[in-house]
Amino acid sequence: MKAIPGLLPLLFAALQAAAPAPEPGFTSLFNGKDFTGWKIAGPPETFSIKDGAIVANGAASHAYYVGPFGNHSFRNFELKVDVMTRPGSNGGVYVLTEYQETGENVRASGRFPSKGFEIQVNNSHTDRIRTGSLYHVVDILDESPAKDDEWFTEDIIVSDDTITVSVNGKQVVQWKQPADWDGGREGPGRRITGPGTIALQGHDPKSTVYYKNIRIKPLG
């Protein structure tokens, strides 16, 4: 059989773009090819897809999971996301959030979700709050548990009133919400109450962050 010129590179690219099979018990939320099941609030051009990853680079914007799994409503779960940052970049993974349009009628900045918690993605940005932080709730300052230009995995577990964050298998945050918690400096939306969805952050035009292998496991 005669080889077709250029076929092997195309097949290799297709394999590269395909989402890998998740671990047992986990379900992929991103197919590695397009934005099926996701909805962007903010400038859509901030997000693109390259080599099986969602790439965030541009004006502040967020990609929310709105797909059918779990009716995009999760309360007790384990979420794993593989992430890579370019030097000086900032991003984040939101949990227990909900789709929020940008505009004058939402929050002072009109840019970032007012509900849910952000798990920080930042190894070298000017913001001192580093990767794995439960942003403005439990902050890891200055020293990051991950490095730029290398893939790392954020593992986020929400169980009842406790959020646990690990980076590359090492626990960096475990926070139990106090009974009198009012949301802290981020406001009342930063409270564990009912279920919510997942969102990925595009922070600013100087930041480039890659997100892939986005998978979740509901917990009983």
Structural overview:
The protein has one helix at 7-17; strands spanning 27-28, 38-41, 47-50, 53-56, 61-65, 77-85, 91-97, 117-121, 152-159, 162-167, 170-176, 197-202, 209-218. The protein is mainly beta and 220 residues long. A hairpin with a 2-residue loop joins β10 (162-167) and β11 (170-176). The longest helix is centred in the N-terminal third of the chain and has 11 residues, at 7-17.
Set out the fold topology:
Layout: H1 7-17, E1 27-28, E2 38-41, E3 47-50, E4 53-56, E5 61-65, E6 77-85, E7 91-97, E8 117-121, E9 152-159, E10 162-167, E11 170-176, E12 197-202, E13 209-218
Antiparallel strand pairs: 1-13, 2-5, 3-4, 4-13, 5-12, 6-9, 6-13, 7-8, 7-12, 9-10, 10-11
How much of the polypeptide forms β-strand, as a percent range?
A: 35-45%
- Per the principal axes of the C-alpha atoms, what is the gross shape? globular
In angstroms, what is the radius of gyration?
Answer: 17 Å
Outline the low-pLDDT stretches.
8-17, 104-110
Sheet bearing the most strands, described? Answer: 8 strands, antiparallel
Mean pLDDT: 90
The portion of residues assigned to helices is under 10%
Number of helical segments?
A: 1
Compressed to H and E, one letter per element, the order equals HEEEEEEEEEEEEE
Distance between the termini: 53 Å
| SSE class | mainly beta
Number of strands: 13
Task: Describe what is shown at a glance.
By secondary structure, this protein is mainly β. The protein has one helix and 13 strands.
Task: Give the tags.
220 residues; mainly beta; 8-stranded antiparallel β-sheet; 5-stranded antiparallel β-sheet; 1 helix; 5% helix; globular
